[in-house]
Structures are given as C-alpha cells and as structure tokens.
Design a protein that fits this description.
Blueprint: E1 4-6, E2 11-17, E3 27-35, E4 40-48, E5 55-58, E6 66-75, E7 82-90, E8 93-102, E9 107-109, E10 112-114, E11 133-134, E12 137-138, H1 148-154, E13 166-171, E14 177-182, H2 183-195, E15 248-249, E16 255-256, H3 264-270, E17 282-287, E18 293-298, H4 299-310, E19 332-333, E20 336-343, E21 349-352, E22 363-365, E23 373-378, E24 383-386, E25 402-406, E26 418-428, E27 433-440, E28 443-456, E29 464-471, E30 485-491, E31 497-500, E32 504-510, E33 514-521, E34 527-537
Antiparallel strand pairs: 1-6, 2-5, 2-7, 3-4, 3-6, 6-9, 7-8, 9-10, 11-12, 13-14, 15-16, 17-18, 19-26, 20-21, 20-25, 21-24, 22-23, 22-25, 23-24, 26-34, 27-33, 28-31, 28-32, 28-34, 29-30, 29-33
Length: 539
C-alpha cells in the first residue's frame, strides 16, 4: 500500500472534479495517523467533492507532528462518470498525485480503482495481447498455463531427492528463459566449486593411519614453536604463558600487564585527572542492593541524588538572588526586567538610564534584537555591550523603546521564590479604587508595596495626601472592604508636590491561590501614582 506523509503545518491534501456532477458529488474518506514523537494518534477526515471547486480532503497536522495518510477512498455515487484530480498542497505549491475517471459506483484508493463488486480494475479492455507468454508458454484460447511460483508453493513436498529429479532454473545465458536441470548436475557443480575453495583431506596423526582423521587431545603433540601463534595479521594459537598471574593476552597477540597492576584502586590512582566533570561522565559503583556487583553511575545522577539528600537535612531551603527587584515585568519571577533602552543599527552598544539592574550573561529580547542575544559586558552606568548587533535604531528613553533583560529566576515552589508587579496609574481621583490585583499560590509570603505620588496639584495651600492600602479587598475597593494597612503622604505647596510613601507590608499565610489588591485615593485632588509590589515566599 502506498502512503503519503504531511510533515508540516502547511501541507494539505486537496481534490477537485473536472466539472459539476450530474446529480451527486463523490464521497471522500481519508484515514490517517499522527506521530508527534511521543504518541501515535489515529483519525479520519470525511468530506465530499464540490464539482470543479478545489476542496481540502485532509487538513495539515499540528506543529511538530507528522501525519501519515494511511488510506484515501473516493467513491463515485453520481449517475455519470466523473474525472477526479488529487493534489498535494505544500505551502501553496501544488504537487499532482493522480487524475482519473471513475465510472458510476467505482472507488479509487491508494491501492487502485475497484468496481462495484470490489474487483481491482486494470487499464484498457482487460484483454491479453496476442502472443503473450507466461513462463515461456504462449497463451492460446482458454488453455491453462502453469505459473512457477504459485505452482511450486502448491506442489507436494519431497524430502528425499534422487539424481533424476528436475529443478527449474532461469538461464541467464539464454535471455532468462525457463529451463530445467537434474539433481545430479547440481551436485556435480557444487563439488567442483567447493573443491576449488578447500583442499582435499589428506591429514595424518600419530601411528600409521592415513587419510581423514579425528584429532583429539591425545593425538596432538605440541612444541615450543611460535610460527602459528595469533597475531594482528592472522588467527593462530595462544602464545606460551608469560608466567605471571597479572598478565593478559592483548590485541597485539602478546601478554601485557594492565595499567595500575590490574586492580581498580591502582588504576584510578594512575589515571589522568579531570578537574571539571560533565553530566555524561561515569563513576564506578558497588551496588549493595544487587549482590555488590560493579555498576556505573553518571555525574548527573550523582548530583541529583546528592541534592535530594541535602534537601532533606532541613525543612527550610534558602535561595538568594543578587538582582534588585525594582522594574521587573508584571507577574513574572525575579530576574526579568523591562527597561527603556536605545539601540543603533549594526552596533552592539545600547544606552539606558541606568545599568544597576543588569549583569553580564543576561538574555536580551525586543525590537531589533537578534535571537540568542546576551549582555557581553557593562561599560558604565548608562551603556552596555550586547553579543549581537542591533538591526534598528531607536531614540528616546521611554516606554516605546523597551528591551527585556532576563536572568535565572528563583526556584518555583521553594523558599526564595519571588514575584513582582509594577505599574503606573494616571488621574487617581478622590474615590477609592484598586491600583492593581495580583494572585499568590499557597504558602507563607512577605508582601511589600511601594507607592510614589507625583504630578499632584492641590488647591490653595490646603493639605493634600494619598491614602493607600494592601490586603484582600473586593473589586470595588470601597471603605469597609479595603485592607487593614494604610499609609499617608502629605504635602504643603500650592504648586504641586512629589512624595514617596512608606512601604506597606504584610506577612500572609494562605492555603490556596488567593487574589490580593493594592488600592488608594486622593481625598482632595486628582493625581498620579507609580506603584510596585514584591512578594517573597518565606515558607
């Protein structure tokens, strides 16, 4: 059976007819199996043709998946013959598979075309041309002709062959015609052939016996002759023993002493040192759970086992991270920063308002930054050098020109796991409102919020201040539902003021994923705020 493979998300099977049907479009059934490298999923696609309109009879597979077309069936249920074309659409490039005419009731498959009785149809009138031969015998009228292969399979078996028996053969010296040969001729040919490969038996042993002999230990007499010893150029006898218990016969045919006197301790001591093992390196291990047999252990398995053991020594594991938490992208773990930066086309140098959050080795992504780009070095407080040159030029250190800098995040689910959210709220009014909401998984968390008020314009010289809270509050952020923690920032100027609030901090223990809010309002004026929230797992 022929098979077709769709190996891309742009590979499709299509079909169409030469024109409209007389009454009914043909039915189509495509069976397939998807292989994504892990699982094998079978399926089918059923459809009907639509006259001369091209239709998809089998869609493309999913990404990283090969779709193997197991079978295709197109059945002509029309009242007249139809002409059908099947094509392979490879990313809009059409590859012709087949064009054929189906009679009424015919079905085309990958194995051929079948009539209404299920018989495989052949081309033409199904007549056999005059002079056609089978196994060298001409077909005449309705006479039967014996075909060698099926006739041989159906014949009665014979186990004791006699010299006069015939065996068919194809004569390559006579245009491959069928001939016969006797068992006598085959034996004679084989004897001549094997006599040219092996000498006739004429060996002798001790005593007066001649001809072929059975050689045993008692009839062999050996001497100290090295002529027939094993070597790198021929097979042979083992050399005479070297007289030591630690010797072995090496690949050169000589006896040698293993490095390190043959014992693991000496061999290890004599081996070349390696300062930095890699995961694939192997170490010997005596398996106490399997009768102390010698086995091997990879460096990767040793590290994993050791880490699992160390983690059981204390109920609390502490992980530290050198990164400053300010400026991390909303909702991501510690180690990812969104910072305004300017690039120059074909240059590896970038300019920022500050580089205190950056470290060499961080990955860099964003507009005009090639894939797999990292920070090669920090030049000074406002410039850094990338591993790849930028492909665009940007100007203005603002949110429109932002790059993402990523380092290794803290381990998820363990002490030290850190999340950060930050943002900007414009025109915060005199009604209580949520600045943001955020969710934390189960555990004990140290949560701190920082709010910076700016661009405030109080009337006259009256006091203005910002009220904010951190807690589990409702979406409306109204008075009775707000959190318990509050902080105030006051100013005394008619021109406007900027002031930083004291941090809001709460220690929270939760048994499941919980949503919290940071909220606030200006009692007297409308103003703007920058805010940030940091949550660190402490248990």
């Amino acid at each position: 059976m022929n098979k077709i493979v769709l190996d891309a998300t742009t590979s499709i099977l299509k079909a169409f007819m030469s024109g409209a049907p007389a009454t009914t479009n043909p039915d189509v059934l495509v069976t397939w199996a998807d292989n994504n490298g892990t699982t094998f999923i079978e399926g089918k696609t059923t459809s009907a043709l639509n006259g001369a309109t091209v239709v998809s009879i089998c869609p493309a597979p999913a990404a990283s998946t090969r779709r193997i077309i197991v079978g295709i069936s197109i059945y002509n249920r029309d009242t007249a013959a139809v002409t059908v074309t099947v094509e392979y659409d490879e990313n809009s490039t059409l590859r012709h598979i087949v064009s054929l005419t189906l009679a009424v009731g015919d079905t085309w498959t990958l194995d051929g075309t079948f009539d209404t009785s299920g018989n495989l149809k052949t081309s033409g009138s199904n007549s056999i041309p005059s002079g056609t031969q089978v196994d060298g015998v001409a077909l005449v009228g309705g006479s039967n002709v014996l075909v060698v292969a099926p006739a041989t399979t159906a014949a009665t078996a014979k186990t004791a062959i006699v010299n006069a028996d015939y065996i068919p053969l194809v004569d390559t010296e006579a245009a491959n015609v069928l001939k016969k040969t006797t068992w006598t001729s085959i034996k004679a040919f084989l004897k001549t052939y094997f006599d040219s490969l092996y000498p006739a038996g004429s060996g002798t042993s001790t005593g007066s016996n001649t001809g072929d002999q059975t050689i045993s230990d008692a009839t062999i007499s050996t001497t100290d002759i090295t002529t027939n010893n094993v070597s790198t150029s021929k097979h042979g006898f083992a050399p005479k023993g070297a007289g030591g218990a630690t010797y072995f016969l090496d690949a050169t045919g000589a006896y040698s002493v293993p490095a390190g006197s043959g014992d693991p301790a000496s061999a290890t001591h004599a081996a070349t040192s390696k300062a930095t093992p890699v995961d694939a390196d192997e170490l010997p291990l005596v398996d106490s759970a399997a009768s102390n047999v010698l086995k091997k252990l990879t460096w990767a398995n040793l590290k994993a086992t050791f880490l699992a053991t160390v983690n059981t020594w204390s109920a609390v594991q502490t992980f530290s991270s050198p990164q400053v938490i300010t400026g991390i992208t909303d909702g991501t773990q510690l180690g990812q920063y969104n910072l305004p930066a300017n690039t120059t086309n074909t240059s590896t140098t970038i300019t920022l308002s500050g580089t205190d959050l950056l470290r060499a080795g961080m990955t860099v992504t964003g507009t005009g930054i090639p894939a797999n780009t990292t920070i090669s070095s920090i030049t000074n407080t406002v410039t850094a050098v990338l591993s790849n040159a930028a492909t665009v030029t940007t100007t203005g250190l603002n949110n429109a020109n932002t790059l993402v800098f990523t380092s290794v995040p803290a381990p998820s689910g363990l002490v030290g796991e850190t999340y950060h959210w930050s943002g900007y709220t414009d025109a915060l009014g005199t009604s209580a409102a949520n600045l943001c909401s955020f969710s934390l998984p189960a555990g004990k968390w140290d949560v701190q919020a920082f709010v910076l008020s700016f661009d405030n314009h109080p009337y006259s010289s009256n006091t203005t201040f910002l009220v904010s809270w951190l807690g589990a509050v409702s979406a409306s952020a109204t008075g009775t539902t707000r959190g318990r923690d509050k902080a105030y920032s006051r100013g005394y100027t008619a021109e406007g003021w900027d002031g930083t609030m004291s941090p809001l901090r709460r220690i929270i223990s939760i048994s499941g994923t919980t949503t919290f809010y940071l909220g606030g309002y200006y009692p007297y004026v409308t103003g703007s705020v920058d805010w940030s929230i940091t949550a660190v797992r402490i248990k």
